[in-house]
Amino acid sequence: MKYMILTYASQRDYDAMSGKATGGSAWSAEDFAALGAFMEAFNRELAESGELVETRGLTAPVHARRIQLRNGVPAVTDGPYAETYEVLAGYWIVECESFDRATEIAARLANTPGPPGVAERAAADVRPIAESRAELDL
Amino acid sequence: MTDTRLEDLLRDLAPQVLGAVVRRYGHFDAAEDATQEAMLAAATRWPDGGVPDDPRAWLVTVASRRLTDLLRSEQARQRREDAVARWVLPEQRVAPPADSPPSELDDTLILLFMCCHPSLSPASQIALTLRVVGGLTTAEVARAFLVPEATMTRRITRAKQRIKESGIPFRMPPGAERAERLAAVLHVLYLIFNEGYASTSGPSLVRADLAAEAIRLARMVRRLLPDDGEVAGLLALMLLTDARRPARTGPGGELVPMAEQDRTAWDAGAIAEGVALITKALPRGPTGPYQLQAAIAAVHDEARAAEETDWPQIVALYELLMRISDNPVVALNHAVAVAMARGAPAGLELLEGLRADERLAGDHRLQAARAHLLEMTGDRAAAREAYRAAAEHANNLPQQRHLYARAARLSPDA
Hints:
The structure holds two protein chains of two kinds. Chain A has five helices and six strands, in the order βααββββααβα. Chain A has helices at about 10-20, 30-50, 100-105, 120, 135; strands at about 1-10, 50-55, 65-70, 75-80, 85-95, 125-130.
């Protein structure tokens, strides 16, 4: 079975990571380097165990575009979210034996290093992936 | 034979074997599959059974046999599908060359020209070159470009199909066309190198391998065309740029600007080789863009300290480069070099002229260069604003962190 692990962040979280002064939890150079090292090791382990299908990180929500119908015409909005609104920040697709194993993998993300307070506010979701249209019709 | 040596041998032989098979039988797409299978057979059998006396001949024989099988099953399929197909002669049949028998090296070069054919998109050219000439597996190419293997398989299959449909004959492009086609080949190698060099995050190991692969392929092209100045220039440019890689990132993976790099960590061997190549190529002319970029890289690499950089010479080289290339980033680098040679105000004036260029609109590099020059003039407030503007425009976190840190250094209470 394949599962998707999702993590979230707001524009404010991204700004804090970019070094922009936000008044919130600022990321030091050491914090940022520790995060990079943690993610590299995490991904390498998943790749080596053969469970990693793919993983991506998304750029800051300010770069997002939203397309919506307005009066029947698709309209594009740049940077559509409020500063503190949490959106998808990155994901992993893993293929593993059970939902519990996927949950165990996601739980390791709780050890992600960062400045004080960040980990407490963070969350990861695990969701089983429907492999076919038939599964979605359930 | 060690695994690495066997791998190197196979990858050197791959394009030669494919070239020989295509020359004999045509059918580029099927021949490519057959050659991959022959390589796989060698990789599994040779470590235990030993390497045959003539490994190339062994591979050609195995690949030819496999091609015959593939064509037979393809014919059978076609007969089932279309009775008329029986009467169609193989369209890819190639006449034997009238002149002297071609060498294996010529075959490798022809393959390169085919892989970089202008009818293919750059992404396909790169993928096909790495697989067909570089001898990488589809899985490896997919990993290097961070796309799923199925996507890369599709991309390579489509590219091969396209070559088949275009009816490109398996021969060297004729005189006039050749220079243009060679330029396309060099551009593809340059893109592969940049793909490997520019990436600093995530699966960095795989991507550094891409830079090494580009250098390996450029060396190979140089062996085939030893008198071409641009081939020498491209190889020199890669070596001189790659030489700085050990000093280019800090312990936390952050980018270190050239002026602050530990120059003792630069690869002296690569620099010596690059400098020798470009010194030999330049006086022979005509001077193309790769030679000029290599010459600029050489001037940087030869300075033992950032302050010893020969900026007037770099300015002169950028001016030559601007005459043959209408690239706003070249003009941007020129402006920075002018600032270093003649003072920040002269550089800022040139940057003002570039702000109207739409191709640089929203590019953080223009703002970052402005910020740097403003800082040199001592206008801390304006420099701080420009660094912040550059950070807003930058699209990746390490760059943003670098630019915000610069801005913070200039704040009134810092």
